[in-house]
Specification:
The protein has 2 domains: 6-105 and 221-231, Rossmann fold (3-Layer(aba) Sandwich); 107-217, Rossmann fold (3-Layer(aba) Sandwich), CATH 3.40.50.1860. The chain is built from 10 helices and 7 strands. The protein has helices spanning 14-32, 47-55, 59-75, 92-98, 107-116, 128-132, 134-142, 153-165, 174-189, 218-231, and strands at 6-10, 40-44, 80-83, 121-125, 147-149, 194-197, 215-217. Helix 1 crosses helix 10 (218-231). This is Aspartate racemase. It comes from Pseudochrobactrum asaccharolyticum. Belongs to the aspartate/glutamate racemases family.
Length: 233
């Protein structure tokens, strides 16, 4: 079987991009057996440059960089693309318009898993951009009919700080895990039937046993969606 070539826009951060690479290759090996691994190309950003654009609100400049990366992967022969971060799906529509190959949006396979499980009200954890702006919540609500809860102001600041000050730098602290447990518990107290780990680094910190309700790891789900497309080739 001739595999499709996966294009990965990564480096945001490389910690989670490494997990994408590992998960995709493990799944291809498990599905195809033997010595099989995934055919993929990765464009890896210097995250310091992207983070500076994010926090300066220079989203138009960030969009230009994302489009350049996507077009480079398309020219390299990628059959479809993944953006290996939730936050940078803020410009997913603009990226899709600029290329001629499919982009698998990270929110879609996650939402499909949740709906298949018969759940409707979900808590969302992620960067402040993902939790507060409409590009992600709006897709879950308007395209998938989910009800989305986000943490309160203080909890959003805590979740965001831990992502940027610790997780993207490879730091996993037990004190931060407890903080996330507390945030999740408060979302469950508001009626969340599940929690979306809507930042690709959170899976480095939060485990299923840290939540009283199911957690949906967008990194693993997104990677599996890519492999499903490869296997269907």
């Amino acid at each position: 079987m001739a595999q499709k070539l996966i294009g990965l826009i990564g480096g945001m951060s490389w910690e989670s991009s490494a997990e994408y690479y590992r998960i995709i290759n493990e799944l291809v090996r498990d599905r195809l057996g033997g010595l099989h691994s995934a055919k993929c190309l990765m464009w890896s950003f210097d995250f310091a440059e992207i983070e500076a654009l994010q926090h300066a609100g220079r989203w138009d400049d960030a969009t230009i960089e994302m489009i350049k990366a996507a077009q480079s992967l398309e020219r390299g022969g990628a059959d479809f693309l993944l953006i290996c971060t939730n936050t940078m799906h803020r410009m997913a529509d603009e990226v899709q318009v600029a290329i001629n190959i499919p982009l698998i949006h990270i929110a879609d396979p996650t939402a499909e898993r949740i709906k298949t499980a018969g759940l409707k009200k979900v808590g969302l954890l992620g960067t402040a951009f993902t939790m507060e702006q409409d590009f992600y919540k709006g897709r879950l609500i308007n395209q998938h009919g989910l009800e989305v809860l986000v943490p309160n102001d203080d909890d959003r600041k805590t979740v965001h700080r831990i992502i940027y000050d610790e997780l993207v730098q490879g730091e996993v602290k037990e004190t931060s895990r407890q903080m996330y447990r507390d945030v999740i518990a408060r979302l469950v107290g508001q009626g969340a039937e599940a929690v979306i780990l809507g930042c690709t680094e959170i899976m480095l910190l939060v485990r299923p046993e840290d939540s009283a309700v199911p957690i949906y790891d967008t990194t693993a789900i997104h990677a599996e969606a890519a492999v499903e497309r490869v296997i269907a080739a």
